[in-house]
Amino acid sequence: MGTATGTTADAERNGPPEGGGPGGPAGGAGRSAPPDPPERPAPSTPPGPSGAARTSGAADANSAPGPAEASGSSGDPGISEAPGPSPLRLLLSRVRPHQGVLLRAGLLSLAGSGAGLAMPLTAKYAVDAFAADRSPAGPLVALTALVLVGACLSAYGRYLMSRTGEGVVLRARDQLVSRIMRLKVPAVDRLTPGDLQSRVTSDTTLLRTVLSSGLVESFNSVLMLLGTIGFMAYMDLTLLGVTLVVIVGIGAVTSLLMPRIQRAQLRAQESVGAMGAALDRVLQAFRTVKASGAEERETAAVAAAARHAHDRGVTVAKWASVTDVTMMMSIQLAFLAVLGVGGARVASGSLEISALIAFLLYLFYLMGPIGGLVEGWTGLQSGLAAVRRIDEVESLPGEPAPPPAPVREAVRDPGPARPLGVAFQDVVFGYGDERAPAHQGVTFDVPAGGMVALVGPSGAGKSTVFSLLERFYDHDGGTISVADRNIRDWPLAELRGALAYVEQDAPVLAGTLRENLLFAAPEADEEALASAVARTRLDALVARLPEGLDTAVGHRGVTLSGGERQRIAIARALLRRPRLLLLDEVTSQLDAVNEQALRDVILELAEQTTVLVIAHRLSTVRHADRIVVLEEGRVRRAGTHEELLTEDDLYRELATTQLAADAR
Ligand SMILES: Nc1ncnc2c1ncn2[C@@H]1O[C@H](COP(=O)(O)OP(=O)(O)OP(=O)(O)O)[C@@H](O)[C@H]1O
Ligand SMILES: [Mg+2]
Questions:
Q1: Which ranges does the record mark as transmembrane (predicted)?
Q2: pTM over 0.85
Q3: Number of domains composing the chain
Q4: Which positions of the chain have pLDDT values less than 70?
Q5: Of the ligands numbered here, which is closest to the C-alpha atom of 459?
Q6: Full domain range(s) for residue 201
Q7: How many Å apart are CA 444 and CA 452, to the nearest integer?
């Protein structure tokens, strides 16, 4: 049921691809979404005979994430606060598929608490029996049965509730993860990974809290409150009047304090988030921090953030204890008032002593639902914020959903791979910031088959050519064609399926060497794998590793050298059997012997497929059939090495300095 809701929403959002360029609607850079209003610990229950109603609240509070867990959510998310549908509606749409089971769970817990509610009345009958010298066995047996049945019903209700909560969390996580995988690259450029991560982990957890403590607890508390008041009215209307005056008092004081607590909690969460961000910064560049001798400075920065979080946490504690004390005092006050007024009425004979005892028991019982309401209110607030944060990610621009598996298979194996030609015609593209466009009318042709090299100074827009070919970004003007077909008309999966791209910084993922090699072509057989390993001269490395291909390479491949990572990335691309191979500075970190070997592999490949290579090393470039010289987002000139040497000053300059460098 719930999937249906999610799928519809996905379909709407996926819709037509949106522009990620300067005018694209993906906007909203840099603004922080509000962090979660954090969890507030359940208000402590004053000592009283009726713990039953509080137990469910306590269990929920335990299952909720603590401030630390929800912390990262307040980093710099970079997601715009565009007004979307109301969070309450979003929350209800997530809950709706489970409304049946939730209602059942709510009714069960209610029945459990209701059994507790009958206890003071039964106690009254027991006291009456004692007073009248009758046997109290009947009421006492009934009391015991009530306790047992009530406990079982409550427990089952809570189990159902938690199970449903887990189901909601699972569904939200599934949807969010598949959404994140399909986000457009420009949208992800603007996000902080830590923030995104916290949306998937802690924000989704808050959904469970909002379900149990927010919705169900509030629903139960309201009914329990009404029920208790009903029983109290049955006992004595005057005493009820006294009690209601006190309850209204509690309500007034608490509602005055609540906004303060909320604000304080919000700030506390923000500062915990800031601490997380400070730590993240250090861990992301751990070696640079050490090499720069910046440990103490960075430690001080993180410690300052931690102190800030501490100070704000203390403020929260201050306000929270004021509320707790207020609530406790109010109930004690009510107790004294009821005792005074009730005692006088007992003395005057207008009230039975057993009724006064039962009334006082109900008075303490009242704390459960009141606490539940306060808790439900705060739980609901944090849940609403979480839902909003989750929805923010889900409403970011996404790529079209992948075709069904059979189509994908067909795309993966296109039979004998025909090389693809590429044509850029007056392509204009900017990354959407204030800087000059990265491409300002780029025009060049790459014939099908053979090797074409892109050269030019740093920042000329070479890597951007590859990003546009992979359609990580949509170009703003001009035409890009692959195999004489406008790139916008290619189904995305088919286009990417035909390409292999080795990025400039040769990313290697955590996992084993084998997983990394097969990453782009999981179906490749052992023979193909062995051949790719041999061609990229990785066999010596594999032989050296303790578990060969099955050795883990560490987070981002930290256990490998730069050149090894580059060769793994190339082998990965070879295994994909692409029709167009995009190589970005793939030999920059290789020694001369390895570079020579890989150059031969690339030339060999160029006989079967189209190779578009970006290189600073002239030794790679000079063998290209054609060289395109880019400068400041434009093509300066194109031709062979010999032609460009005589015709283009920039190329000559690049060539002479680079060749000289290579010769060293
Ligand atoms: N994700 C991005 N967001 C914003 N600007 C970007 C992004 N990627 C690149 N740029 C900018 O676009 C311009 C072209 O970048 P590109 O990566 O294409 O250069 P390049 O020719 O590959 O340079 P290099 O030889 O140093 O790799 C640069 O000015 C760069 O700062
Ligand atoms: Mg580059």
A1: 101-121, 141-161, 206-231, 237-258, 327-347, 353-374
A2: no
A3: 2
A4: 1-84, 194, 212-213, 262, 266, 269, 402-417, 658-664
A5: 1
A6: 2-72+80-394
A7: 10
